[in-house]
Amino acid sequence: MHREYENIDARYFNLPLDEKSPAAQFRYVYPFNFTTVAQAWILKFNYEPRFVLTSFANVQQLDEDRVQFYRRVDCAAGDDLSYEKIIINRADKTITSELIAEGFNKKEQVCERSILHPEGEDKVVQDYTLIAHQGVKTVKLELFKTGIERLYKTVKFAQFEQQSE
């Protein structure tokens, strides 16, 4: 370890995240109804790059209206795994997607969150909040835009499949 870093208290590397003062917030409005976006939100993982392996784990029906599952992402470019907790609520028509990490004392911490909700009949708003980052906010913006593109492609592929039937 470099001498300058020898006396740093390790507790400060896992400070509690402050959701009231997020690092960044993005918003996008999709021109689709909620059902279309919800289906695409699940299917979009089929169109990830070849070096990314996605699997679903721990699927639970929380109540009559809410389903929760974890998406495990394994990237061939590194050793790190990431987990996304997704809750689809059909009662209030929301999708909550949280990128989670193991925090201090092995507790689950939310690093970023997207909440999708309808705006009228034919629009869905995605509100994205970046809570924790390692100085890569511009990369997160690019990843947000890539996610939007992937969702559009998923919707278009689904429409194409319906026309083919």
Automatic annotation (TrEMBL):
Domain of life, source organism: Eukaryota
The protein's name: Uncharacterized protein
Organism this protein belongs to: Stylonychia lemnae (Ciliate)
